Amino acid sequence: MNGKAPMEIKKLSSQIDIFPTLFGYLNWSYETNFFGKDISKMRFLDERAFIGNHRKLVLLKGRRLTVLETQKKHASYQWNKKENLLIPSKTDSKLLQEAIGHYQSAFELFTNGEIKLKTIKK
What we know:
- This protein has helices at about 20-25, 95-110; strands at about 50, 55-60, 65-70, 75-80, 85-90.
- It contains 2 helices and 5 strands; from the N terminus they run αβββββα.
- The model has no long low-confidence stretch (mean pLDDT about 90).
- The protein is flat and about 50 Å long.
- It is an alpha+beta fold.
- It has a 5-stranded antiparallel beta sheet with strand order 1-2-3-4-5, covered by helices on one side.
- Helix content is about 20%, strand content about 20%.
- The chain folds into 2 domains: about 10-45, no CATH class; about 50-115, no CATH class.
């Protein structure tokens, strides 16, 4: 990009962060109500990854991982990055509430039609 050398960014992030990060590197200004962040501007305490499939939703922060399952079930783990293992742990109620908040907010915004791409006026 514009003569910049390739680099490796070692921050915890998700695929939803790709476009905000790319737009940041291109110095493009934009408005959005999406959940992605510019990784290059992310502080360590803001690093997180959202993971999901059709049955489970996950929030990973640092080495702590909370899994939201169907029927109001949840599980908590510590992630051993070196060995790529999940170790069951006691529920981190703060992380659990944060995970519920992110996914519930996204659901409500989507359901109410409030998450939409804004059309650029020319």
